[in-house]
Design the sequence.
């Protein structure tokens, strides 16, 4: 056999290897099976310390996933077109997942109808939505934005209130 000094240093080596194995396992750099195999070869078993399995840590990490899309700055574009030709620019904003408020008060009625028709087709293709929020003012949103409520109901209530006075 060896001297007592060699036996002590041998035990320290095994303890250090056990600590290193647990540390590598904790970081996910080594799977649990490899540690069990190494401990079997060393003949030492450490019953006091239990390490969680590789699969349970992998599942814990998965819960910290955050959608990248939700971290972006959200922009709402205000647009007041002067002609039908500007409808393409509004559609490009919608394709880029930006909401657009379109004010058609400075456009002739026939041009306004053409713009709304074009935007309606664009919104349908993108699975978005369009809502009237005022006289000749529309809110166009991509599929990533949900519109809740209705301003036209509020406008109706205000006009009813004014008639009663």
Sequence:
């Amino acid at each position: 056999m060896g001297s007592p000094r060699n036996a002590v240093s041998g035990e320290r080596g095994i303890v250090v290897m056990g600590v290193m194995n647990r540390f590598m396992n904790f970081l996910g750099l080594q799977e649990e099976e490899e540690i069990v195999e190494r401990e079997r070869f060393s003949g030492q078993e450490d019953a006091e310390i239990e390490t969680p399995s590789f699969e349970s840590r992998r599942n814990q990490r998965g819960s910290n996933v955050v959608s990248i899309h939700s971290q972006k700055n959200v922009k709402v574009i205000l647009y007041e077109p002067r002609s039908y030709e500007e409808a393409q620019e509004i559609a490009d904003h919608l394709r880029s997942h930006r909401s657009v408020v379109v004010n058609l008060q400075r456009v002739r009625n026939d041009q306004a109808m053409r713009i709304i028709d074009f935007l309606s087709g664009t919104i349908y293709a993108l699975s978005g939505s369009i809502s009237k929020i005022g006289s000749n003012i529309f809110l166009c949103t991509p599929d990533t934005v949900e519109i809740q409520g209705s301003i036209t109901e509020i406008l109706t209530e205000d006009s009813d209130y004014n008639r009663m006075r």
In short: The CA atoms of residues 28 and 69 lie 28 Å apart. The mean pLDDT is 74. The beta strands are 76-79, 99-103, 129-134, 137-141. The radius of gyration is 33 Å.
